[in-house]
Amino acid sequence: MALNDVGPRGNTKECLDFGSEVVKMINFVLIKTLYFCPMIHDAFTAKKVAELLIQINAIKLEPKNPFTWASGWKSPIYCDNRIALSYPTIRTYIREQFAKQIEAIHGKPDVIAGVATGAIGIGALVAEELNLPFVYIRPKPKGHGRKNQIEGILSKNSQVVVIEDLISTGKSSMEAIKALQESEASIKCLLSIFDYNFQVAEKRFKKEGVRVYSLSDYEHLIELASENRFILKSEEEMLRKWRLAPEKWKP
Q1: What phi, psi does 236 have (nearest 5°)?
Q2: What would the pLDDT profile of 76-123 be if each residue is shown by its tens digit?
């Protein structure tokens, strides 16, 4: 059921009523932009996912108080998509959109694979939605027991779609894909909830011939934030500059 609400800036919001949960959606307009991003399959979904992630603080934009990543990079954005698992309505929407896009882009694969640890939860939900087997890939083999790197049953020559929660440099995603390839799996594509659109990731995947798609990405997030005045024009410019050279950026 759709309800109406008025935000603090006087802009009208749409509220989606799911019984015990009410998720507020700020109305947004899709506009023609000058960039081209082949990773996004559906622009409307890209903005809706970005809005949902902002609503639950899975994505935080702090241009004036930047975060420090594990790599040491300073960043005006922090993204933790695992938070979405705590919101049944939102995780269901993400699960359904993954399933729709997988079937639209590739058709049903043999197996869904999640990259540990961030994509284990959502990957398993996507596999359930498609009624498919699920495996997950550790960063490296266990040091005990069977010493598995891939957990679950993966037959040779299986067609696999890999699920990620977040793509930054693409390094961990590519390591997981190589582990699957070493097990003689055929990688159909990689899908993530959110992609930072870093050039280093794009070059990495292109070099290895991996097709990559995302439900949402940095460009659509910044567009949404600007249209709804979550950020100032000066902050938008700062955020765009950061993405071009995040390793060199200083607040």
Answers
A1: -60, -45
A2: 999 999 999 999 999 999 999 999 999 999 999 999 999 999 999 999
Please, are residues 163 and 215 in contact by the beta-carbon 8 Å criterion? no
What letters, b where the CB count within 10 A reaches 16 and e where it falls short, cover 135-155? bbbbeeeeeeeeeebbbbebe
CATH 3.40.50.300 correct for 2-244: no
CA quadruple 103, 14, 51, 233: dihedral positive or negative?
positive
One-letter amino acid identity for 10?
A: G
Residues 6+ apart with CB under 8 A from 161: 102, 106, 109, 111, 112, 113, 188, 189, 190, 191
- Please write down the long-range contacts of 61-68, taking CB distance under 8 Å and 24 or more positions apart: 61/225, 61/230, 61/231, 61/235, 61/239, 63/231, 63/235, 63/238, 63/239, 63/251, 64/235, 64/251, 66/251
Helices (H) and strands (E) in the chain, counts: 7, 13
pLDDT digits (tens, 9 = 90+) for 166-176: 999 999 999 99
Nearest CA to 114 among 42, 168, 36, 191?
A: 191
Cis omega (within 30 of 0) on the bond before 117? yes
Cβ–Cβ < 8 Å for 166, 193: yes
Residues comprising the chain, all counted: 251
For the entire predicted model, the pTM comes to 0.84
Q: Could you give the angle at the alpha carbon of 72 between the alpha carbons of 68 and 77, nearest 5°?
A: 35
CA dihedral 167, 171, 174, 178 (to 10 degrees): -150
How far apart are alpha carbons 28 and 5 in whole angstroms? 14
The token pair at 28 is 């947004």
